[in-house]
Design a protein that fits this description.
seven-stranded mixed sheet; six-stranded mixed sheet; binds adenosine-5'-diphosphate; Nucleotidyltransferase, domain 5; alpha+beta; single chain; 36% helix; 495 residues
Length: 495
């Protein structure tokens, strides 16, 4: 009887379930979108029950589609949107409120208040993160302070806190657990010691009794209740989405890098067993712990990556589909002197400038739609270059290869531009679903479905390779223009 690993990929806009076989191939996949709730400008929430129900539905569908029985599922791996906060009643399992999503800016004032208290350095040293509403800690505090009676209930031990992985595992198994990659995004977890930190909990005013216990990323998190799939299945792999993608790309060695080109872009480099603290506002994060101690990554993110192409399609309406952007870009030999910095919501790493706003510069009477489209694609590659340069400087060594994935990585023009700008080969994985695959690998490693990392590395098959064509003169000109354009967006701030 052939066995499979079920990966639950709980994203920001949809829940997906994929069944992988031993070769790491996708045998069945099901996906369901769920509601995005925007109660006020800048606020983003999800209905935690809808997250769970959508995840359960797609898991059952994926199993049904392959016509297998639950006995054939060797293990379940979970990967999830990170930093999103759920608080629920330990006894009833009922959420105390909607989940506060990572994108939600409601705790900006709490962050400012903490900055004036001078705790930012302590937070940075212990968590590797910045004091920003993006992360979970201040969201937990906000809920405890703003949902009627919640703090008192929490202090009595009646409330569980979890990121989305914990919430799903609680529903699947009844256990209240998480893994260090997710814990490392909460502002409450000491990434050097690998434990929840009393001082951080005091700073955030969060009682320790609401925290999940932290298990290894590849290890037993719980066994599914029989009524869920008709069989008891171990949940044995968990990692936040970006760390899971790093694992799915088999970036196991110090210096291995991947960039995911989705709505935003996330570049992570494996830094091995030691946390590297950035001089360029990159984040230090736990990559995973697969049983022999924590491994770390440096991470940089761009807020507007592939989303700039969506903007061209939906707002400017100058392309019909995202895929058209490639053909249009190639219809001009260059961007005609146009630079585009899509700082729609500020700039991410290495700038972290929330006030910057986007700009298209260098327009002339001869500027065409294709020039703007080409400049938009260039902006994804150039922002990624800024991350890459920061990663290399923080690592103190050259990176030789970039592995890529995500929706926009199928754009060959973009990938070739990326290779040219970085002057290193850019390679995609033959299996596009690296995030779900990473979760599956973590789960399967624990149960012996895959023997070791070596076996997984063998499964990694190169998709497409883009070899750089480097022109030093052109390179210098492009980077100088880009720097000027970025500076312009930083000057043109919103009051
Ligand atoms: P997410 O997981 O963040 O929702 P995906 O990995 O599904 O994102 O990628 C979707 C993003 O990629 C969208 O922003 C879309 O505009 C962009 N995209 C999709 N196809 C292409 C393409 N061929 N060229 C450029 N961008 C693309």
């Amino acid at each position: 009887m052939e066995k499979y690993i079920l990966a639950l990929d709980q994203g920001t806009t949809s829940s997906r379930a994929i069944l992988f076989d031993h070769a790491g191939g996708i045998t069945s996949c099901s996906q369901k979108e769920f509601s995005q709730i925007f109660p006020k400008p800048g606020w983003v929430e999800h209905d935690a029950n809808e997250i769970w129900q959508s995840q359960l539905t797609v898991a059952r569908q994926a199993i049904k589609e392959l016509s297998i029985c639950a006995k054939q599922i060797a293990a379940i791996g979970i990967t999830n949107q990170r930093e999103t906060v759920v608080l629920w009643d330990r006894n009833t399992g009922k959420p105390a409120s909607n989940a506060i999503v990572w994108q939600c800016r409601r705790t900006a004032d709490i962050c400012e208040g903490l900055k004036t208290k001078g705790v930012e350095n302590t937070i940075r040293e212990k968590t590797g993160l910045l004091l920003d509403p993006y992360f979970s800690g201040t969201k937990v505090k906000w809920l405890l302070d703003n949902v009627d009676g919640l703090r008192a209930r929490a202090e009595k031990g009646e409330i569980c806190f979890g990121t989305v992985d914990s919430w799903l595992i609680f529903n699947l198994t009844g256990e209240h657990v998480t893994d260090p990659s997710n814990a490392s995004r909460t502002l409450l977890f000491n990434i050097v010691k690998g434990e929840w930190d009393k001082e951080l909990l005091d700073i955030m005013d969060v009682p320790a009794c609401i925290l999940p216990s932290v298990r290894k990323s590849s290890g037993l998190f719980g066994i599914t209740k029989k009524e869920i799939f008709g069989e008891e299945i171990p949940v044995s792999g968990v990692a936040g989405d970006q760390q899971a993608a790093l694992f799915g790309q088999a970036c196991f060695t110090e210096g291995d890098v991947k960039n995911t080109y989705g709505t935003g872009c996330f570049m992570l480099v494996n830094t091995g067993k030691k946390p590297v603290f950035s001089k360029h506002k990159l984040l230090t994060t736990v990559a995973w712990d697969i049983g022999d101690g924590m491994e770390y990554a440096l991470e940089g993110s761009i807020f507007v990556g592939g989303d700039v192409i969506k903007w061209l399609r939906d707002q400017l309406k100058i392309i019909e589909t995202a895929a058209c952007s490639e053909e249009m870009a190639l219809s001009e030999p260059d961007s005609g002197g146009v630079s585009f910095v899509p700082a729609f919501v500020g700039l991410g790493a290495p700038y972290w400038d929330p006030n910057a706003r986007g700009a298209i510069l260098g327009l002339t009477r001869g500027t065409t739609q294709a020039h703007i489209i080409r400049a938009s694609l260039n902006s994804i590659a150039l922002q990624s270059r800024d991350l890459f340069a920061a990663l290399e400087e923080d690592m103190g060594k050259r990176i030789e290869l970039l592995k890529v994935d995500g929706g926009a990585s199928i754009n060959s023009f973009l990938m070739q531009t990326q290779a040219d700008i970085l002057n290193i080969p850019v390679v995609s994985s033959a299996i596009a679903e690296t995030t779900a695959l990473g979760a599956a690998y973590l789960a399967g490693l624990h149960t012996g479905y895959w023997k070791n990392k070596k076996e997984i590395t063998k499964n990694w098959i190169e998709g497409k390779r883009y070899t750089p064509k480097f022109d030093a003169e052109k390179h210098k000109r492009i980077l100088t223009t880009w720097k000027k354009a970025v500076e312009a967006t930083r000057m043109f701030t919103q009051d």
